Fold this sequence. Notes:
By secondary structure, the chain is an alpha/beta fold. It folds into 2 domains: 2-70 and 329-439, Aspartate Aminotransferase, domain 1 (Alpha-Beta Complex), CATH 3.90.1150; 76-327, 3-Layer(aba) Sandwich (Aspartate Aminotransferase, domain 2), CATH 3.40.640. It contains 17 helices and 16 strands. It has helices spanning 2-9, 12-21, 64-67, 76-86, 97-110, 121-136, 183-186, 197-206, 232-242, 255-258, 262-267, 293-300, 314-327, 330-353, 379-383, 390-399, 421-439, and strands spanning 43-47, 50-53, 58-61, 114-118, 140-144, 167-168, 171-172, 189-192, 211-216, 246-250, 273-276, 287-291, 359-363, 366-370, 402-403, 413-414. The chain is globular, with a radius of gyration of 21 Å. Pyridoxal-5'-phosphate (PLP) is lined by residues 66, 120-122, 125, 148-150, 217, 222, 250, 252-253, 277. Pyridoxal-5'-phosphate binds next to helix 6. Belongs to the class-III pyridoxal-phosphate-dependent aminotransferase family.
Amino acid sequence: AGQERLFLTHQARSRELYQRALYSLAGGVTSSWQITRPQPIFIEKGHGSKIIDVDGNEYVDLHGGYGAGVAGHAHPAIVTAVQRQVTAGTHFAQPSEDAIIVAENLAERFGLPLWRFTNSGTEATMDAVHLMRAATGRELIIKIEGCYHGHHDSVQVSVAPDEADVGAIDDPTPVPASAGIPSAITDLTLVATFNSLGSIEAILERHQGKVAGLIIEPIMMNAGIIKPEPGYLKGLKELLARHGSLLVFDEVKSGLAAGPGGAVRLYGVRPDLVCLAKAIGGGLIVGAVGGSSEIMGRVVDGTYEMVGTFNGNPLSMAASRAMLEEVAIPESYSWLEALQSRAVREISDIIAKHALPAHVVSIGAKGCVSFSPNPVRNYRDFLKIDDRFNHLHWLTQLNGGVFLPPWGKTEQWTISVQHTDDDISLFVDNFSCFATTVAR
Ligand code: PLP
């Protein structure tokens, strides 16, 4: 209650705007996941690693716009690229040289030759699911319990189901993620358990010759951070290939954040298709699907028409090119690694000092604290995480000048290339303050 009162004292203008917004923006926000308690925060500007709200409060931004902010704010390379393009026209619905350069760069990083662009991660995974079906002539797809792939019908299944609904771990019950999704579509989505080849195999055996493929976050990042166990991704590829089914890596979140070539490069497994979005645009609006010549051949020959008025938009392509050529470079990854390992080490020390039943997981620019003493291997383990402390942690960080994603149990921090050692010190100091309160 004390932290909540402190929050409200400093958020008078945000409060005013929120009250006004309630009459014109549904729920007072522009996306349902912008709602924070006790109220949303209206941001005026961002620079480097910081954001400033409409009340003039400055925060170290570790929210990173739900992980899109690996470049940080107003990065000089992105600003220059966008300025160049904005005066040269922002929309032609025709290809550009920047689009070729972005595709070539992604091909090199992710080891897949052919690319198309979209305007979001949702569109990227929607096209990937359509393509799996178009390429195989099969309708069933498999997704993993606890993975999020955006808000189109086929993947709005078992995203964050309640414990009471999930069924047996070796045969998870598909649970619609939202009202408004027709069962005629979700019935085509089968659900398996992360880090279990057996649960995929059982589905493939049960539905011989009917499964188009699997879409998976190769590093789960919508249930904390759950890494694939050794051999899991390679095993998936072999298993699916044996059944004539395809493998799609949804690297919308992990993409440039986990490393320069995402999970594909980290784990050395090349899927049939990869989906990207978020960080590749350097803060602009973009998604991408890359694939093998064989699967993208269905786009080339027109079997699957992959379209969109704003696909490959010049502003997004200019920003993506700058992101790939000037920001997501080896020096940046060394810096991210240095900051992240410091954050992980110091937060882990605080957890140990106070004997908190928690541990830290990180990969590349992403990290999270899981309030469970045990490692988390899949969504069932994730359900066991103690979520009593998330809101207190979020408020303590916010009142201490650090902005994190509001759902501590599921979301993780994102460090940008513009964060500094001082930013990490503030983050760790706030964590220490929170840990002292909880341990009392
Ligand atoms: N896939 C993953 C793994 C995501 O985390 C998200 C968004 O958080 C999406 C897809 C959807 O992306 P977007 O919000 O750009 O539609």
